[in-house]
Design brief:
2 copies of one chain form a homodimer.
Chain A lengths: L2 E6 L4 E2 L4 E5 L4 H12 L3 E6 L11 E4 L3 H12 L4 E4 L6 E3 L14 E7 L3 H6 L6 E7 L6 H15 L3 E5 L8 E2 L2 E4 L4 E3 L3 E2 H23 L2
Parallel strand pairs in A: 1-4, 1-6, 4-5, 6-9, 9-10
Antiparallel strand pairs in A: 2-3, 7-8, 10-12, 11-14, 12-13
Helix pairs in contact in A: 1-5
Chain lengths: 220, 220
């Protein structure tokens, strides 16, 4: 069985010891995928930002805080990974500087300088080999579903992914959500609204099927 | 018995629908104080930022997200409050503008304009009457304990508080912590390291004693 690398949760981008930029990702979908992959017989490495969840039994978890730490942990785990699920809601930007301690209260307006974080999944996918890469696309501009799919497809192509899972920001913290999956071959799969565990199990089976096809094609 | 208003948890200051500035406050100390005040026979209003805790049974809770929402909720609750515990780790600043939705990913550095939030406890203490106000001071620059107490005492005086509880940032998320309490009369009380429930019960008894003294002094 293949080894599965899953990123999950938010990242925290600290301004100082106390304050940070983050988002409301609970990590539930990533943890559900890690559990589903383990249940399917895979070895699983879960690289996770801060969440209130307990890692699934049998899964190797690596706890990180920031996007840079998450990238470093993923790079260490990539060599033995066959399937990569990038589920973490990684902060796009981090403060340019992190101050030591908690600066004294400052009652004036100020400008916080932010710099872009690396795109973790795109960075890992540059050394793709025969790995299967699955990305997630959170899109709050969901008024037009076909434009949303178009944006996700461009993201899939730009990052070199095999599959991308599209949901809107109502999925953050939600128990149930409906997702659409796009593949690199141009197909769409619309999943019904269901809990994250059911969606996770389905996504793991889809990724496993892709990986098996790729391994079979590579065989002499 | 007096009515007790408690603020708890972090606040979230949104940049857009998804991203926000916050801190790692769990809300545990504020919730413990609300529970202890209820156990002591007080009516309790708990104004709380986002946490993973369940409000104590018998306590009226008001869920808020941002510092401005917390201030508005406290102002509504203040009229019937006799003792105010400001335990929330309120964000000092918020983004000047909140964008609708989640803006598309932006790969360039940028400056985030931040403006100061109101000081909730100082703002409430301007209409003090015979209320007892208890503040908390989180101080990460804890190398020098006497300088730390000095800063806390200035904060107590500037905000018009009766008591201030000093702990260092190791208390954020910790199960046990040692705190020092300063009062407006110039006294210090050093509590031993103990769990937050024990500290909370002690602080509630101290505030109740101050409130009873004040009520007695005001009687003819």
């Amino acid at each position: 069985m293949p080894t599965v690398l899953v990123t999950a949760g938010p990242t925290r981008e600290h301004l100082d010891e106390v304050r940070f930029l983050t988002n409301a990702s609970t990590g539930r979908m990533g943890y559900a995928i890690a559990a589903a992959a383990h249940a399917a017989g895979c070895e699983v490495v879960l690289v996770t930002g801060p969440t209130h969840l307990t890692p699934p039994a049998g899964v190797t978890d690596v706890q990180v805080v920031s996007a840079l730490e998450m990238l470093a942990a993923c790079e260490r785990a990539l060599a033995r990974a066959d399937i990569v699920f990038g589920v973490a809601a990684v902060a796009d930007h981090r403060p340019r500087a992190r101050h030591a301690g908690k600066p004294a209260k400052n009652d004036a307006p100020y400008s916080l300088e932010l710099v872009p974080n690396p795109d973790i999944l795109a960075s890992l996918a540059r050394v793709k080999g025969r790995r299967v890469f699955v990305g997630f696309s959170l899109d709050a501009q969901a008024a037009d579903a076909s434009a949303q799919r178009e944006r996700a497809r461009r993201k899939l192509e730009r990052k070199g992914l095999d599959l991308i899972v599209v949901n809107d920001s109502s999925a953050l913290g939600a128990e149930r959500s409906a997702v659409t999956v796009l593949d690199a071959g141009g197909h769409d799969y619309a999943l019904p609204p269901q809990d994250k565990e059911a969606t996770a199990a389905w996504l793991v089976q889809l990724a496993l099927a892709r990986w098996r096809t790729r391994v079979d094609e590579a065989s002499p």
